[in-house]
Amino acid sequence: MKNWKILFAGILAAGMLAGCSKETGTDPRPEPINPNDVAYMNVDISLPASAGTRAGVGEEQGQDYENTIKKLLLVLARTDGSYAAHGIVDNLTAVGKTTVTTTAKINRTEIQRFYGSDGKFAGTDANVRVFAICNPTTEMIDLMESLPDKDATWYDKIGTVASEGRNAGIWTEHYFLMTNAEINTKKFPQLFDEWRVKYSTETTPFNLSGANDNGGGIDNEGAIKVERVAARFDFKDGSPASTPEHTYDIGLGDDAGKLRVKLVRMALVNMNKTFYYMRRTSADGTDTGSKLGGIETSDNYVVSTESDFKQKSFANTTDDGLANIKALRDKFFFPLYDTDGKINDQTRLNWDNYSIASVLDNIEDKDEGWEATDKTGYRIWRYVTENTIPGDASNQRTGITTGVIFKGKLEVNSDDEHLAKLKAAVEGNYQLPKDVEGYTYKVDNTIYPILYLFQNQLYVGWNDEIRAFIQNDDHKQSELYLAATTKDETTSKSLDDLYQELVAANKASNGTKSAEVDAALSAFRKAATTAGFTLYQASNDAEADVAQNEGPGYYFYYYYWNRHNDNGLPGTMGKMEFGVVRNNVYKLAVTGISKLGHPRITDNDPDPENPDNPDEKGDVYLTVSVEVLPWTVRVNNVEF
Q1: Angle CA(197)–CA(201)–CA(202) in degrees, nearest 5?
Q2: pTM for this structure?
Q3: What CATH number does the domain located at 41-232+616-639 have?
């Protein structure tokens, strides 16, 4: 174990500690005893063991840049939690994975707040609460500098993320914000005069984390344990060895190994813009009855910000729901939906997008401290804020849950004759049969048909596949035939009739985009999705990333909502099953894909996603040990 000790001496001038008040004028401070003397306090800080691993698989120490402590904000409070004093230690260089020891100074007039006019400790058993905030944000320091004495709500304050990127304020490399993992109660001397008599030199600071032999036997055994406010997502390629990197077989039966999905991008969505400085828990995930620094158990929730808002309706079919959906942009970075509760190409550009190849080039994290058969291959992707969903488990919804969206591309790995048309379409070599008229469109001057998925069967175009099927008398009782020929309630036309109108409109416009074609396509796709068809239209991946893209093709999306606690019951929501909790590492790997994802165009989807400081120089010094707890590791294998 390595210890770092930095002692800060205060230079005091007579008269500088005379009684004064804060800017509010409501905080009179008594004149300290003998203001020419300096008092010191010692603190031990220990770097993150887990504060709760309910569904975790162990702990990992993390990277040095995640464990560095450069600044310490030490806060002293009464046993009821109300603020009394604080001090700041700057210019620390502590990089370690165990305990960091340093010395902090706190203005002596503030220390005197714990004592009565008789110089005796005014509380029970001389107990104080000690909070060690490592690498505090400017926002947090400004807050402390403006606090009046006896502020009882300071630890309820909410922080904001300065930037949504890799080096946001609370997870800047070598400057991760860390706060108490638990409530730490320490003992002070019974008499204020002891700060002057017994702790008047740098070599005899009062120890907040250990024994004080010259202090009447006060033993503050135990470092102050802290945890990172942020969480971390790691990712690795979980595809089988039988396929290329991040590529998965989706073919069924005789087509096994012949149809593939290649994952090309991943994006973070719905990241909280705000966070509580201090962790808290409650019975239902709301602030009501919340406990500061409580340990997560199987019967409670971790509380994150906006718990009231997260219980509202986000249905885009009601006025209230739409109003709440619009407000999501004020609450979250990278909202999944647009202000109408839908997803389109522009919405996706606002997600936190990465090519999977670039993610797999990041730093590999193979810490041996957590339990897994294979720890290799995980790459540190990015950091995120805490986001939990309160109340009934049904409140865990896509509009407010932090998730990862994966973008896949269809590939055909076969020269089989029955897959020839599909392969030609996928590779941009599709030729419409001369004796058949059909609707096609162009992407980068290349002709593409629409792909239709109906009950796990994929059809290339409409006329040359489906229409041939429905014209066969033997198929007139099939679900495909019924879906294609049943009259639409709005237009009183069958799906096939609407398709023929689309073909005619496209022919009249000479294959170019027009209002008539758009109207016919809209009517057709609405009827098709109502009948249970999923439509896939090709696009160019360069629309999202010109520099690094997969070119034209058929793309679709898989939605993963981050699991915090997996109850092992698919389809049954459990407490805290979905969400993000501070100081957890979520190790993600897509281990299987069995189907095509959601189409790029929401209107092509029969089942689209839906959102529901004083100037006194009289200082005392405190040495604090802060223990940075290891990340709690959670392994989430994802299958689509």
Answers
A1: 145
A2: 0.87
A3: 2.60.40
